């Protein structure tokens, strides 16, 4: 079976090709799957997509018309795939249900400490041989409160690191994680978590219920000197409301590895093009904001697990098996 993989980064290509060698032929493309690029998949039974590929009804219809029967998503999130349309077209959709939670949790902490200790500003200064400390003062994390919104595997990994820092732990989720409770985490209503936490980190999936979970009211409920970290999904945070609060001089720091309008921007070089997204353009100008391009998952360990699971999903499909990774089964 021939497979075409869209949105493949240069670091990914050799790993994907090595994993699929001896199993199925795979063609790796650096372009993302869109309405314009979907016709490339004509004749390929299986398509592998990345998290920033948009698989709406038109893309899926084009894929189905070209003979594609399997969508193997190289990510945990699947809010970019119209599952109802895929099912109606008789397509199988599979994802990577889990990979190293440490990759995302550790990067969330990287963002937190970078904005807390003004690392980017300090590095920029020293490159200009400016070694002043003015404006670089941070805070100890020890003894302060970390609020973890979403305490699944990634939230738990983040909480373990926070526990190592000697922080107090507050959690919010639909169900308590016993491992987090053992760390001393106290589960509280979201409003209390926002009001009492010095560091707030988001680790919940993006669903209609969690869209803009951190809205204007939630942002106003936070401490003026809080640190907000989002390494989950951009749509969890109302970006325009965040800009409004930042303009008021609020928050010690904000670290964003995701952005709600990142599709068509992240993973691409836009350095020579006019900036069309006014909200993102404003966000990156704040000295206490650090934006990265959805790279929290991007470690050798996590990427290897993602690719291995994607291969297993393809093999399961080819051999008629079904696993927990299947979102839409073969009709």
From TrEMBL:
Keywords carried by this UniProt record:
NAD, Oxidoreductase
Positions of the D-isomer specific 2-hydroxyacid dehydrogenase catalytic domain: 8-327
Show the InterPro entries listed in the entry.
D-isomer_2_OHA_DH_cat_dom, D-isomer_DH_CS, D-isomer_DH_CS1, D-isomer_DH_NAD-bd, D-LDH-like, NAD(P)-bd_dom_sf
**D-isomer specific 2-hydroxyacid dehydrogenase NAD-binding domain spans which residues?**
110-296
State the PROSITE patterns in the record: D_2_HYDROXYACID_DH_1, D_2_HYDROXYACID_DH_3
Similarity field: Belongs to the D-isomer specific 2-hydroxyacid dehydrogenase family.
Q: Name the chain's protein.
A: 2-hydroxyacid dehydrogenase
Native organism:
Streptomyces siamensis
């Amino acid at each position: 079976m021939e497979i075409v993989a869209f949105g493949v980064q240069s670091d990914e290509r050799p790993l994907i090709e090595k994993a699929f060698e001896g199993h199925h032929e795979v063609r790796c493309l650096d372009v993302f799957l869109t309405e314009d690029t979907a016709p490339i998949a004509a004749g390929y039974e299986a398509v592998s997509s990345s998290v920033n590929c948009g698989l709406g009804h038109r893309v899926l219809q084009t894929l189905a018309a070209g003979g594609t029967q399997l969508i193997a998503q190289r990510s945990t999130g699947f809010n970019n795939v119209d599952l109802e349309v895929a099912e109606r077209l008789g397509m199988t959709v599979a994802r990577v249900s889990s990979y190293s939670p440490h990759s995302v949790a550790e990067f969330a902490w990287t963002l937190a400490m970078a904005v807390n200790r003004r690392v980017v500003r300090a590095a920029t200064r020293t490159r200009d041989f400016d070694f002043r400390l003015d404006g670089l003062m941070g805070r100890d994390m020890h003894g302060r409160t970390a609020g973890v919104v979403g305490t699944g595997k990634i939230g738990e990994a983040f909480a373990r690191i926070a526990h190592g820092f000697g922080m107090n732990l507050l959690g919010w989720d639909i169900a308590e994680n016993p491992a987090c409770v053992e760390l001393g985490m106290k589960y509280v209503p979201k409003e209390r978590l926002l009001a009492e936490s010095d560091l707030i980190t988001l680790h919940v999936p993006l669903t209609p219920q969690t869209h803009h979970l951190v809205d204007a009211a939630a942002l106003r409920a936070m401490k003026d000197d809080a640190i907000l970290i989002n390494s989950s999904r951009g749509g969890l945070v109302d970006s325009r409301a965040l800009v409004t609060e930042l303009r008021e001089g609020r928050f010690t720091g904000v670290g964003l590895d995701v952005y709600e309008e990142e599709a068509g921007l992240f993973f691409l070089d836009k350095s020579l093009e006019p900036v069309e997204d006014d909200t993102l353009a404003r966000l990156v100008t704040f000295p206490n904001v650090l934006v990265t391009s959805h790279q929290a998952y991007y470690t050798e360990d996590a990427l290897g697990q993602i690719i291995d699971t994607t291969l297993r999903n393809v093999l399961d499909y080819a051999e008629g098996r079904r696993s927990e990774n299947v979102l839409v089964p073969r009709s």
